[in-house]
Fold this sequence. Notes:
Chain A has 2 domains: 1-57 and 121-143, Alpha-Beta Plaits, CATH 3.30.70.20; 60-114, 2-Layer Sandwich (Alpha-Beta Plaits), CATH 3.30.70. In chain A, the strands form 4 sheets. Chain A has a two-stranded antiparallel sheet with strand order 1-8. A two-stranded antiparallel sheet of chain A has the order 2-3. By secondary structure, chain A is α+β, with helices and mostly antiparallel strands. Chain A is built from 5 helices and 8 strands, in the order E-H-H-E-E-H-E-E-H-E-E-H-E. Chain B has 3 domains: 3-42 and 59-109 and 236-303, FAD/NAD(P)-binding domain, CATH 3.50.50.60; 118-233, FAD/NAD(P)-binding domain; 324-407, Enolase-like, domain 1 (2-Layer Sandwich), CATH 3.30.390. Chain B has helices at residues 11-23, 45-50, 65-68, 130-139, 153-162, 185-197, 240-244, 289-303, 368-375, 385-390, 399-407; strands spanning 3-7, 28-33, 71-75, 79-83, 88-91, 96-98, 101-104, 108-110, 124-125, 145-149, 168-173, 200-204, 208-212, 215-218, 223-225, 228-231, 235-237, 253-254, 266-268, 273-276, 283-284, 316-321, 324-330, 335-340, 345-351, 354-361. Chain B starts with a strand and ends with a helix. Chains A and B meet through strand 1, strand 2, strand 3, helix 4 and strand 6 of A and helix 8, strand 22, strand 23, helix 9 and helix 11 of B.
Amino acid sequence: MKRVYVNEKWCLGCRLCEYNCAFANSGESDMVKALRKKPVRPNIVVESDGDINFAVSCRHCKDPICVKSCISGALSISDGAVTVDHNKCVGCLTCVLVCPYGCIKEGEQGAVQKCELCLNNTAGEPACVKGCPNRAIIYEDRG
Amino acid sequence: MKEYVIIGNGAAAAGAVEGIRSADKDGKITVISEEKHHVYARPLISYLLEGKTDPERMLYRPADFYEKNSAEVIFGDKAVSVDPKARTVALESGKTVSYDELCVATGSKPFVPPFEGLEKVSKKHSFMTLDDAEALANDLTPDSEVLIVGAGLIGLKCAEGILHRCRKITVCDLADRVLSSILDADCAAYMQKVLEDAGVSFMLSDTAVKFDENSAEMKSGAKVRFDVLVTAVGVRAETGLIKDAGGKVGRGISIDSRCKTSLDNIYAAGDCTESVDMTSGTEKVMAIMPLAYMQGRCAGVNMAGKDEVFDTAMPMNSIGFMGLHCMSAGSYTGECREIKTEKGIKRLYTEDGLLKGFMIIGDIDRAGIYTAMIRNKTPLSSVDFESLIREPALAPFGPDYRKEKLGGVV
């Protein structure tokens, strides 16, 4: 299946991916409206290691420990993508406790939030990748 | 065609069903469920009383789970004995179910000490099951004074869940702190305070010794009036079936790394078992829902004839009260590195060059990176641990690790 992969040599650290992610998941049609005067809570986060930058988002693991650990049954695998049912999640954060990559976070409305590859919002494909100016993140099938 | 029988219908049982079906699409699966409910998320009963979920949303697996997995469920019947030679399970109803491979996932039952006068209390409850929660809710009025005996995970979650449904809650515990099984005194103090600020009263290092219908006499001599009593002292693993069948049982049913019991063709998973804690090397009961699922799944795969090992069990908990989160994992041994943060405190324990355990109050973001270091036995010499102590991140793992994890399929 297609996932988001990182090429850290090319990452400028511009954080556009973070803004595009937050916008795509905001439910708003206007980026300014979506992000202005609000804390940006993206599902992809740019980290730095000295001069190197790289963007981290859910790996959509083949055998995801978050799904196996979810106590409410809110996390599940849908065609390979790890998705969260916001209606079922009670925000216990057990998934945050087990994700090896730190890719699930507390959401604003009680449920957790995570990358769903923009398959469940209007973007339809990862907005972070689409907006990356330097192909430092790519969306492709590597098995 | 193999016949699989699973005794129990919780997370471990669901794991066993999914484990079996990952390896055997055709075998016959029978689930024996004492409760009359579809598999649901038991720890969510406090959220149910809080109004944050409902029985439909509490389903641990979708409504068509059994159907999709071709599993037959016998609801409202109880396994009373197992005959490992004849490979049969006898049920309370008189029925007998035969198996080729059996998984015991009987969970645990509340342990209620023999308090003097307890029989005089008419409104008393445990807090384990959906039925318990509904019965408790029925006894509560906005004027109720509630006494909860036990300041562990169950007692405190119950307190949070019913806070808006009653007038007064007192929680007592013989331990000198709340959540004594997972937190040290300093960390526990944060959790106690947030509950006190919300209106819960505590009587610690003290417990009820004698009851009348509406009052408890405490060890300290104090008297506590109540309308409704909740006992949340602890739980006991349901080991009877395996013990009576001659299997190895300690505080839980003893299982190996394949989740097999000492008896042929019998596996066990979840809260009824004891297994090796990878962080201490000792065998213990670790009654935690994620482990229940993972053990159940491992058992199921092995029952279906494949060979799977689950050897990374460790105690771990994520729990929050009034918005303050607390996470813990592993063993609290070796050197302690402590950081005070804006919202709370973080304590990491290292030994023999490995991270062995942690407690975090408040700043729990990305804590799973720590848990994975424990699980993977990541040598601290291979990472920038000083940076990780401050903030869990992937940068301190170096470029090779990142290339593997962020550039490949994991």
